[in-house]
User: Fold this.
Amino acid sequence: MTAPMKFSPKVACARADGRPIVALESTIITHGMPFPQNLETARAVEQAVRDAGAVPATIAVMAGHIHVGLDDDQLQALARANDVRKISRADLAVCLTQGWTGATTVAATMICAHLAGIAVFATGGIGGVHRGADQSFDISADLHELAQTPVTVVSAGAKAILDLPKTLEVLETLGVPVIGYQTDRLPAFWSRGSDLPAPLRMDSPAQIAAAHRMRARLGLPGGQLIANPIPAEAEIAHDQIAPIIEAALRDAAGITAKQVTPFLLNRVYELTAGRSLTANIALILNNARLAARIADEISTG
Ligand code: PSU
Ligand code: MN
Assistant:
């Protein structure tokens, strides 16, 4: 009994040849960005992975299968649709058996990447502990996935709409290594740094690949979270974004569950007149390039 998966021809070839592959998520396309920037970004991120010498594998659920690697028609269909479900660990099996179209979050993409034998995954920012979680109990399933699925996830930190200190505490409790890439400070998505220290630091893709392999040798089940700061020219300074996040959070009163993160990202987009999206695109491209280099080190090591 195996998982219902369909590999694109290019991903199938790369798997057969043992070439480096980078998994990419689809929730960012369907729930994280507006059309047409979502489609342009999905294509550009795939190209960034190719330019860095790896094969991109964007993952989504369609017609009862986990698709690993999408063609341009499939990417377009996802980017234009507004009835795609946001799929996390809890939803994956139901989405498949019901035949729904589903976009995979960080958690679900990690599960699918691991099933496909892909070790590295590039995203924007992971989900985490929401502000006010002491009342709402809203903590992303992404954190628990990092604790149990052995995939190295390249992010720009956790999204700054979250409670970053609490997110770090939960990651520490769950035994997830949070590794600042060439930085001692925890990156904060749209901003290069927060006032929090990065728990660990590494400076090269080879070091990150070595730690990934060591976790396997130790029999440790979970993954690694790489926190790669947004490029300086694209960042929105912390002082500038902080009041906007506060305003977006006020506007989010009454929004719950899966809708919270998409609502907040869209509200920050509106309140920054699109600047947050420009930054989001820049950081994803930056993560895709780093992920390709890590995947290359893992495949040759
Ligand atoms: N990174 C982005 N934009 C996004 C996301 C990540 O730059 O939209 C998505 C990811 O799929 C992540 C999800 O898993 O947001 C978190 O949702 P939640 O807080 O509901 O777990
Ligand atoms: Mn949530």
